[in-house]
Known about the structure:
This protein has helices at residues 12-23, 70-83, 95-100, 110-113, and strands at residues 30-32, 38-40, 45-48, 62-65, 89-91, 106-108. The chain has 115 residues and is of the alpha/beta class. 11% of the residues are buried.
Amino acid sequence: xxxxxxxxxxxxxxxxxxxxxxxxxxxxxxxxxxxxxxxxxxxxxxxxxxxxxxxxxxxxxxxxxxxxxxxxxxxxxxxxxxxxxxxxxxxxxxxxxxxxxxxxxxxxxxxxxxx
Length: 115
């Protein structure tokens, strides 16, 4: 959400709801990652934290409600999914978060997602 200068910081819950509604239609589609990997979006997980934690996720999105740090929740979910043999694409602009992800995680920035 932070990549959009639309005042999201004044209404984090509203920004999370808008973003989830925008990306929900990606479920079931084939996308090409920035690294050129083609994959079918089988599941969309949105990690919600802070004021956005209680936002209702639209159909097609599974909400992960972080009890504390959202980045920690992203790392934990990604690690678990990769351990289960899943291919995981994390969308984030946060370099610190990217550095903490398992090496097998695919990563894309928000511009890739929102174009």
